[in-house]
Amino acid sequence: MCGIVGIVAKHPNEEYVTKLKRSVDMLKHRGPNDDGVWAEDNVYLGHVRLSIHDLSAAGHQPMLSHCGRWVIAFNGEIYNYLNLKNALSKDMSMPFQSDTDTEVLVNAIAVWGVETTLKQTTGMFAFACWDRYEKCLYLARDRFGEKPLYYGHVTDDFVFASELKAIQVNYIDALKIDQNALVDYMRLGYVPTPRSIYKGIKKLSQGSYLCVKPSGESKIINYWSAKDEINQTPAYQGSYEQAKNDVERLLKESISLQLSADVPVGAFLSGGVDSSLVVAMMQSMRTSKVNTFSIGFAQKNYDEAQHALAVAKHLGTQHTELYISEKEALDLIPDLAHIYDEPFADSSQIPTYLVSKLAAKSVKVSLTGDGADELFGGYTRHWQAPFIKHKLVDSALYRNILRLTPASLLTYAKQTKWHKIAEQLARLKKLDFKGNDSLFSIYSALRAQNFAYEDLVMGVCVEQKEQSSQSLLEKTSAEQIMYWDSQHYMMDDILTKVDRSAMANSLETRVPFLNHHLFKLAFSLPLSYKINAKRGKVILKDILHQYVPQSLVERPKMGFSIPLAHWLKGELKPLAEYYLFGEKLAQTNMININLTHHFWTKFLAGENSYQNILWNILMFSRWLEKWH
Predict the structure, then answer these.
(1) Domain shared by 182 and 290, yes or no
(2) Are the beta carbons of 185 and 197 closer than 8 angstroms?
(3) Distances in whole angstroms, Cα of residue 426 to Cα of each of 183, 420, 431
(4) How far apart are CA 600 and CA 564, in angstroms?
(5) Cα separation of 28 and 363, whole Å?
(6) Is 67 a catalytic residue?
(7) Annotated catalytic residue, options 2, 129, 211, 461
(8) Is residue 419, in this structure, part of any structural domain at all?
(9) What CA–CA distance (Å, rounded) separates 513 from 375?
(10) Which end of the chain has fewer CB atoms at under 10 Å, N or C?
């Protein structure tokens, strides 16, 4: 795993090498083993390396192709690089100088071209490749957006980087906050692709590459589309038992590819279905004990460590666990704005960072169970939204009952054990259930952390419509929502959280469920193989029970969450009030401080539904303090 950065300067001079080195220094956590810069004409490429394959100097980047035409700065892993290497050897006589996937990738581009190479890869990556003959720059990102890539124009320069901080270090005075992106952030807890928090800077979409020509003209080309993959794949015709065998086979193949490394490999283990299945298959493939890692909390409602330990004992892994205190969370909060260099407020960023820090003491690579929920129906909204659409949209009776429910009753319910249901009903009550976008409106309402964001960002007219509501052909409502999750929430929240947390600790994470062959199979299966009534991930659970007793893993989904409300009212309270009501936030005139006071008062009075929006404000305030 690595980090990349680059500048295409309109008026190049020797100061740009200094700028590039500053940017490289900001990414050293992503690649502490080596770094390099390359400059030619007006193009400047930088790289930091976390050595995983071939730890020798032969893997130094930026790297030139054998023909000398192409130069690449690469972040990620090409899991099938040995297959590509063999294919290249047949196409041409080429003496490889290393056992790195980078050398294979840049020479594949030289032989087959950018798009053909991308279509043949299996992996997670973001890279920049400069064509020295045509004077074109290519930026590319993997199919699921596992690895980050920001790009855009600042002043007269075109810039790109794995993380915003590599751009901020040179251009912070020229970067202006995009208040529409800020609204998105307050609603979701992250800034969705293709936006970034700054005007003029974007995130490259998954499954695409960008070509920047000498004239400055640029074009984004999709080399892989999840929607097309789903729509063009015939429905699965096999039995449930056949489907179990096929899912197990493809997941094992994916894990086998991802176990390849010249450094120690371990896994995160929560004790839930997804990570337990990955670890079980890993252990079945190895004779030595797999290193597994988990995080625990003193509050039992949030503690999965006990379940992880039980699974680890059953599978016979070498298990390490760490229990988190409020003080450790308090100590970490000031650092989050540097780790996540644009506002990010999924509070599970705290345990994700700490479990990454724990794992990095023993291994350089860790596998995770992420992606299973989106592919196999693991979130409650995957069955809730279709139910709500049927009852509220297609049934006038239920729709009128909701419309006539007094807001005061919902406000009261928010203070009871029914607060989660009351919060969802309050969101749905505000929707207009007309037209063909009703399902997407319901999905957006369920995904939004709080509708209170509407008047929170000052001077912005809130756009209720999301950027993309593309529909699948001949798929159920539940599968449509799983698809939307795979294209939005998974990439911009889950994968962002894991990438930044792990790379801040110089740890590479790999996600076996995000194999495009497994993705294709998952969406071709009958819905009943994935969701049965209110039970999601049916097929994964049945496969897991072949490795782990049902009693160890069958329990209500917890998610990787923290006791946020408890902490905000406890040791974190002084820090929260400092960031929520400090001068820095008020001076920006971006956030409605009076509304923030209202949220805080309601929260302290017992309405815990405000905890997420308060955390969003807190994280934004700390980010402002750090970067502006």
Answers:
(1) no
(2) yes
(3) 19, 10, 9
(4) 14
(5) 18
(6) no
(7) 2
(8) no
(9) 8
(10) C
